[in-house]
Amino acid sequence: MSHGAAALQSMSASLAGFGTAISAALAPPSAPVIELPPLHRTNTVTTIIHLKADWLTLGQQVALIDFLRDDHTAADTYTALTEADVHKEWVRIQLERLGIMVF
Fold first, then answer.
1. Separation of alpha carbons 98 and 7, rounded Å
2. pTM higher than 0.70 for the full model?
3. Which sign, positive or negative, has the C-alpha torsion 83, 50, 48, 60?
4. Residue 76 gets which letter from DSSP?
5. Could you state, in order of their start, the residue ranges of all structural domains in the chain?
6. What burial class does residue 68 get, using C-beta atoms within 10 Å of its C-beta: 0-12 exposed, 13-18 middle, 19+ buried?
7. What gap in Å lies between CA 69 and CA 11, rounded to an integer?
């Protein structure tokens, strides 16, 4: 192989490596899986049991616990709602979406 051909082949390999490095640097990072700390889940469940016992049946409470266990965004929303009427209506709507009617 001539020196010119070898130089072109080497330059081609260098450019390919550079392109790969740039692609990796500019690619968006993969979204990390965020696990809720056990204490956060425990606090959410405790809140359900203490605050909802007067207007949700036991079955409805368990369904809400299961829902919030599986949907971390919903669990965060649940714990962030501080206005009692909004909180109650949000829970009612979430349970109805699961096919559980709350009266």
1. 66
2. no
3. negative
4. H
5. 1-32, 38-97
6. buried
7. 55
How high is the pLDDT of residue 10?
78
Does residue 63 contact residue 100 with C-beta atoms inside 8 Å? yes
The terminus-to-terminus CA distance of the chain in angstroms comes to 84
For tokens 């409805």, name the residue: 60
At residue 51, the pLDDT reads 65
Residue 43: predicted pLDDT: 73
Helix (H) or strand (E) holding 9: helix 3-26
Query: pLDDT by residue for the chain (103 residues), tens digit each?
Result: 677 777 767 777 777 777 777 777 776 666 665 555 666 667 777 777 666 667 888 889 889 888 888 888 888 888 888 888 888 899 999 999 999 988 8
Q: Tell me which DSSP letter residue 56 carries.
A: S
- What single-letter DSSP state applies at residue 28? P
| C-beta separation of 74 from 67 below 8 A | yes
CB of 75 within 8 A of CB of 41?
Answer: yes
